[in-house]
Amino acid sequence: MAQVTGQDRGPAQPAAPTGDDPNAVAAPFDPDIVARLADEYLRDGSAGVPAATPPASAPPSGPGFYFLTEAPFAGGFPGFGVNEVRPEVVPRLDAGPGQFDVMAVRRDFPILDERVHGRPLVWLDNAATTQKPRAVIDRLSSFYRHENSNIHRGAHTLAARSTDAYEAAREKVRRFVNASSAREIVFVRGATEAINLVAQSFGRRHVGKDDEIVITWLEHHSNIVPWQQLAAERGAKLRVAPIDDQGQVLLDEYERLLNPRTRLVSLAHVSNALGTVSPVREMVAMAHRHGARVLVDGAQAVSHLRVDVQDLDADFYAFSGHKVFGPTGVGVLFGKLDLLDSTPPWQGGGNMIADVTFERTVYQPAPARFEAGTASLADAVGLGAALDYLGRLGIENVARHEHELLAYATGALRSVSGLRLIGTAREKAGVLSFVLDGFRAEDVGAALDREGIAVRSGHHCAQPALRRFGLEAAVRASLALYNTRADIDALLAALKRLQGGSASG
Ligand code: PLP
């Protein structure tokens, strides 16, 4: 039976489903269980963090319903006021090549010329997906015009071209994350698939009964559910490191969770809901001291800051192409070579085999053993073009531009009365989540959309993180390299119009 334990800050884990249902997982969406957990939590606040999700029809809060009515650490993290906003850790700003001209950058993204409801598009939903530069769009088109073929198989010219393009993209990814070998780069569908791959292959092999998996309260659902599933299957425990009122992992609490039973730690490099940049290098080192392997979910990191998997000493690092200006349908799992080579494949099929008889199959070494079937070839090639593009701009230039914009946007939003920023970590990437007094998040999102401004409203696929702040939904504006102060000014003006009751419709 899977168990979820934490730092005594939430309701007990519901009993794992029993019976023969092969689809049953660790966290049944059962309103009765949810209500019981709520009662337990309200009664004694004991046991682990919530593992159940309220039913869609449930009210957003209230007695008898699982909800963090009072956030732990409500008194504030020592040294910080609860609502103090200090995104003050400046990213490493070594001069990148050339000057960063945001207006020139914007011209590289054709979609930014779109109009929405008659207004110029203001794209502030970058944490959900980023827009694509012409270099990527053209590369996809060129692949289909000149190179399209399946790879590694046909002995003909187009097969050679597409294989070269695909493997060149792998090398570009290797360079981008500074892996020591291209064999450490596995193409997958996205960060979600990368995490599931590790859970279902490495995890199944190395996590057993009563072993422990550690995550944090910041995680995207993609970095929660696969571990719940694994824990349920293996009889392991899921333990969750808490965060403070600014949305920062409490490192001493995190360290206290680590012990010789910890097999795996999986943590977000940058939180998609709060923007927190976690000190992953330090957290990886702590986990390694206890003999645990670490997966870093870099889905929100790679477009904002330089990632060096060797410097982080991450065992696995996952990200999605579409969040770093590349196509959807492709992502990356980096894994240390010895780990990949000693991990069984998770899917069987073509491309991943060296030899097949009816009696047995010999697998290819990594990375091919994890790439069963036909990969998203053009998308991988497009991702390579996106990384080239980012390399030309210089990630340090991008980080500096975004940091300045984040500071500007933070100040702008703080000027809106009744607006509460959620996630005020000292080190943040360009994510601004907020709630506005008197307005539901979805109504704010809809009002902004009517003005051509795209933000995300809802739970951002990180329900535990939002509930930590007593919320079921928030509005999220997220920045990327092509955003400008004018975008923030448009957001601010629209919010003020909404408050004044004069939102355009
Ligand atoms: N991890 C984080 C932190 C994310 O923000 C996301 C997507 O928003 C994911 C994982 C999942 O990415 P994908 O849906 O591209 O697989």
What are the key terms here?
505 residues; alpha/beta; 8-stranded mixed β-sheet; 4-stranded antiparallel β-sheet; 18 strands; 34% helix; binds pyridoxal-5'-phosphate
What do you see in this structure?
It is a single chain. The protein has helices at about 30-45, 100-105, 135-145, 155-175, 190-205, 225-235, 250-255, 280-290, 310, 335-340, 375-395, 395-415, 440-450, 465, 485-500; strands spanning about 5, 115, 120, 120-125, 185-190, 210-215, 235-240, 260-270, 295, 315-320, 330-335, 355, 360-365, 420, 430-435, 455, 455-460, 475-480. The chain is α/β, with parallel strands linked by helices and about 500 residues long. The strands form five sheets. It has an eight-stranded mixed sheet, sandwiched between helices. Helix 9 (about 310) links the parallel strand 9 (about 295) and strand 10. Helix 3 (about 135-145) packs antiparallel against helix 11, helix 4 (about 155-175) crosses helix 11 and helix 5 (about 190-205) packs parallel to helix 6 (about 225-235). It is globular, with a radius of gyration of 23 Å. The protein starts with a strand and ends in a 6-residue tail after the last helix. The model is unreliable at about 1-90 and about 90-95 (pLDDT under 50). The structure holds pyridoxal-5'-phosphate. Pyridoxal-5'-phosphate binds near residues 190, 191 and 461.
In brief:
By secondary structure, the protein is an alpha/beta fold. The protein has helices at 31-44, 102-107, 134-147, 157-177, 191-206, 225-234, 251-257, 280-289, 309-312, 337-341, 377-393, 395-414, 441-450, 463-467, 485-499; strands spanning 3-5, 115-116, 119-120, 122-123, 185-188, 212-216, 237-241, 262-268, 293-297, 316-320, 331-335, 353-356, 361-363, 419-422, 431-436, 453-454, 456-458, 474-478. Bound molecules: pyridoxal-5'-phosphate.
